[in-house]
Design goal:
Blueprint (H helix, E strand, L loop, with lengths): L3 E6 L3 H12 L4 E7 L3 H4 L5 E2 L2 H6 L5 E4 L6 H10 L4 E3 L7 H11 L5 E3 L7 H11 L6 E7 L3 H12 L6 E12 L3 E2 L2 E2 L6 E13 L2 E8 L11 E6 L2 E4 L2 E7 L2 E12 L9 E7 L2 E5 L9 H17 L9 H20 L3 E3 L6
Parallel strand pairs: 1-2, 1-4, 2-3, 4-5, 5-6, 7-12
Antiparallel strand pairs: 7-13, 8-11, 8-19, 9-10, 11-12, 13-14, 14-15, 15-16, 16-17, 17-18
Length: about 350
């Protein structure tokens, strides 16, 4: 099979992230070019041009991936749709609610826009989602995410609950307390001492007993002293991180674990990689990029790039439509508003619903 081809709009850190994945899996992903305001300084290992028109005058990729600051994301979407090219937007697709509404009004009906929301494609989360969809814990009713922030966490909550565009009432509060924070995006901080860090906790009430618990502390992605927790409660059991407890007979609770098979450990000479994730001997997830030695987040982003290519070629379903990305961010904005005001915020059905 020919690799998925894509071009990148933007020449910053996220652009380099996409290009690094293409270099790691050249038989699956290929970058055809970069659109940069300063092509002469891009130096990204692929041809750089100033505009989308110039880019499309050459080899036309399956889609373009936007890797620009939040305020510019809607402009890239509009430009790509005007040229009839499929586009994958970074999260969130617009900075605020008015921006989401305006973007949807302009390109929502085009069918050309997807969002690079990768969290449900991360191996651990994908395996949990497969277990939930298989009915291992019955019907899911509650999800607790203490891992990532805002729209990413909302995507996990909605996805694991199997929800679409249901209205939701958000109640959030913020708490600030000292916490050591020795590792950030720019590396280790050897002299780090406890500093004020804000933790935001929110309930998301979708009605019918279905709810989410959002729990995020500043820099939780990087801080090594903060653990990550995810729990899904169903009608007959609960999945907590990699542990599954459920009732299989009226009086028989049983416990299982999600098992991650990793190679390259001890005398295993297959190379350092994730192979698969299983539950009770059943494989729930197989690493689609086995052999690349990519991290789990890299695997998820590579997977959504490849899925977007298949969708753009009419060979697969849409990986994460614009409507879903808009809904995630609308709820995440409500979390922020509720935390600021101390009041409940209701997210009602928007045009993308």
């Amino acid at each position: 099979m020919a690799p998925t081809t894509f071009a990148v709009v933007g020449s910053g850190k996220r652009s380099r992230f996409f290009l690094r994945l293409a270099a790691a899996a050249p038989d699956r992903l290929r970058a055809t070019g970069v659109v940069s305001r300063d092509p002469g300084r891009a130096d990204l290992g692929v041809p750089a041009v100033r505009t989308l028109d110039e880019l499309l005058a050459g080899e036309r990729p399956d889609f373009v991936a936007a890797a620009v600051p939040w305020p510019q994301m809607p402009d890239v979407a509009r430009a790509a749709v005007a040229l009839g090219v499929p586009v994958l937007l970074e999260t969130p697709p617009a900075p605020d609610l008015d921006g989401l509404r305006a973007l949807w009004a302009d390109v929502g009906d085009s069918g050309l826009v997807q969002v690079a929301e990768q969290y449900l494609l991360m191996p651990g989360h994908a395996a949990r989602l497969a277990a939930v969809r298989a009915g291992v814990i019955g019907e899911p009713t509650a999800v607790h995410v203490c891992s990532t922030h805002l729209y990413h966490a909302v995507s996990l909550i909605r996805g694991l609950l199997g929800l679409d565009m249901e209205e939701v009432v958000v109640s959030a509060r913020a708490f600030t307390a000292p916490l050591v924070d020795p590792l950030g995006f720019d590396g280790w901080r050897p002299a780090a001492a406890p500093e004020p860090r804000t933790r935001t906790i929110a309930t998301l009430d979708f009605g019918g007993g279905r709810h989410g618990l959002y729990d995020f502390t500043e820099n939780q992605w990087w801080n090594p002293v903060l653990t990550r927790r995810i729990a899904v409660r169903g009608t007959v059991g609960e999945l907590v991180d990699d542990r599954v407890v459920r009732v299989v007979e009226p009086t028989t609770p049983v416990e299982s674990r999600l098992v991650h098979r990793r190679t390259g450990i001890d005398l295993n000479l297959e190379g350092n990689d994730l192979d698969h994730v299983s539950l009770d001997g059943r494989v729930l997830y197989r690493n689609p990029f086995r052999g690349t030695r990519l991290s789990e987040d890299d695997i998820a982003v590579a997977a959504i790039l490849e899925a977007t290519g298949a969708w753009a070629r009419d060979e697969g379903p849409p990986p994460y439509p614009l409507a879903q990305g808009c809904q995630d961010h609308a709820i995440s904005l409500a979390i922020g508003e509720s935390a600021r005001t101390g009041q409940d915020v209701r997210v009602t059905k928007e045009a993308w619903a």
